[in-house]
Every structure is written in C-alpha cells, then in structure tokens.
Amino acid sequence: MYVLGLMSGTSADGVDAALVDFQGNFDKPKWNLINSASIAYSSSLQKKIIAIEQGMKVSASEWSAISEEITEIYSTAARTCDPTGLAKIAGCHGQTVFYRPPEKPWLRGASWQLIQGPLLAVLLERTVIYDFRAKDLALGGQGAPLSPLLDSALIGGGAGWRAVLNLGGIANLSLIPPLRGPDRHLDVMGWDCGPANSLIDLAVNKVTNGQLNFDCDGLLASKGMPDLKVIDAWLKEDFFQLLPPKSTGREFFGLEDLEQRFSEVNSDNANDLIATMTCFTASIVAQDLEILYRHLGIKPVELFVAGGGSKNKFLMEEIQTRCMGVQVLTTDAVGIPVQIRESIGFALLAWWNICKKPYSHSITNAERPSVLGVEVNYE
Questions:
Q1: pTM for the whole thing?
Q2: Beta strand pairing status for 374-376 and 127-130?
Q3: Are the C-beta atoms of 115 and 92 separated by less than 8 Å?
Q4: What pLDDT, on the 0 to 100 scale, is given for residue 337?
C-alpha cells in the first residue's frame, strides 16, 4: 500500500513528506521509499510558532489563520512528494504547539498538534489520519515518543542492542533488542532525553541578535569552550535522573530556561555559550545511556542518529566522544534519510491505523494498547 507521511517537528522549520510503499507483516514490513520532499516554513511563521510554544497569547482568529497556513503547507508538501496521487492515505502529525506530560493520578497529559485534518483531506482528495497522540494520552500514557516501535519495524534488530537517536527540537531515543541472544525477547524501549536543537537554536538566535537561527555545521560551537562544570550540575536536575517512560517538550526547555542557563555559564563569550548548550545535549544522551546500563545492564553497540542535529558536526563529534564504545552512525546507513525518518514513521503509523494494528502501551505507560490516529475521509 502506498502511504504518505507528513511531519513538522518542534524546531518548526517546515514540513517533510515521504511517499512509502508498505507490504507484508505489520511488525516487520517490507517497505520502499518512493519519494520525499521538504517545504520550509516562512521565517515569520516559524517565529510565530516558536513564540506560541513559549507562551505567547494569540486570539482565536489568529489561531485559525495559523492552522490554515500550516495545513496549506502540509498540502503543498504532500502534492510535491506525490504529484500523481499514488497514495490514497496520508499520515499527518501536525505542528506541536503544546505538550504536557501526565502527572498521575491527578493530572492528565495533553498535547496539541496544530492542523486542520478535514481541510487537509479535502485539499488532497484522500483519507487523512492525524491526531496520533490523543488516544494514548486519554489512556494515561505519555503520548510520546511514538518512534520506538516504528524504528523497530523499519530498521530492525542487529547483532547487539541498537539505539536510534532523533535530534530534533527535543532528543529522543529508541532501543531495539538484538536478533539473537538472551535479550532478543525483551521489549523495545524509548523515551525523550531532553533538549536537542531547542536550546541550541534559541541560543544562536539570541547571541547573533536574530541574524542566525541555527549553528550551521556546528561552526560557532567549534570555536568555543564549553563550561563542563555547569553541564555536570545541569545533568543532576530531576528530569535527567528519571527512568523511562518520560517525555518532555519545548515548554520546559525554551527561552526562559535558556536565559537561566546562560546566567549560570562561566563565560559571556558567544561561542562559549553555544558550545556549552551543544555539549549539554550530547552529555544528556550519554548520561541516559549510562543510566540504562547501570539499571538494566543494556548498552547499545550501534547508535543511529537522525534529525536536524545529525548535520551538526560538532554535536555529532561530542556524542561520539561521550558515548564511548558505541558506534555512532546516521540513519542513512540503514537506508533512512536523516531528514525524513519521522515522515516515514508517520506513514507507517497511518498504515497501522488502516490495518487496525494497536500501538504497544509499554513505551508510553498507557493503560492498554490502542490504535492511534483519527481518520478523516475526504468524500
């Protein structure tokens, strides 16, 4: 079955689309990437989305206008990727503008992905599956990350444990059991590690007075000296000591958080500040893998990296240095382009929805497995 996957991440830089053909077993499908496309958000839309994520208040009419604009861009990405309409189904994540993990037993989790599903279905003249987090959240789950079972299905196991790291606005990890040995029957695991590009991008924008929005190739960070002492202190914060399942969002690691961290760095040099934030991201990932080994005796032999952060050479070098004994690669090595890994994943989630395959509750700590996503037929 041909399926479109559409995704925009917490970095709010645009929409990535993937056209994928799925066949065979749901858990281990044969799949083929037919085409991909990326459509960038305008600078003004990106700034508006990030400001909203930071708590900026907007009117109801502005919400409507923003959601329509995002939906139109999703439509353009879909039609660019699949101009002849091979796919009759589109899996659409939408633009995350708010996330609150559950605090059991008294507070439900919540997540808002901005998209107009019915409008997108009409624009594309095909069925759209969207709102993938809501059911899991309603069942008491974290609603995120959704990628671990997708990574297991798309990448599969190897000779040892495999880890897949997404470096978007937030860093999240998937752990895939090996094909052989005593661990082969263990469950897939996954969780959000903490900030990845969210703090780095905000830091770059701040120190350059809005001239730059990200650190291309890690050039700014490579000229600085990270404050390792303050990073060690940050790693002791409560969230970074939690065991999975855990999830987070830009609401917790945004501009206010950045300004507090800037005030604690023992340097005013712009490159030192960027280097510190970049090394912080690498250190968070390394610590999570260390905690995993300490508590469960699990250590991956391979770490496949995807997302925008995989193009940051300084960040990748820092991850390699800190994750000693682990081979660090990008998902390109297993046939998944780093930019569209999540789009391929949402195509798979849409296929699972149509096939009524439930998503496991063990990843998100929901009460039970459930079929994720809401279906909208254009007819």
A1: 0.93
A2: antiparallel
A3: yes
A4: 96
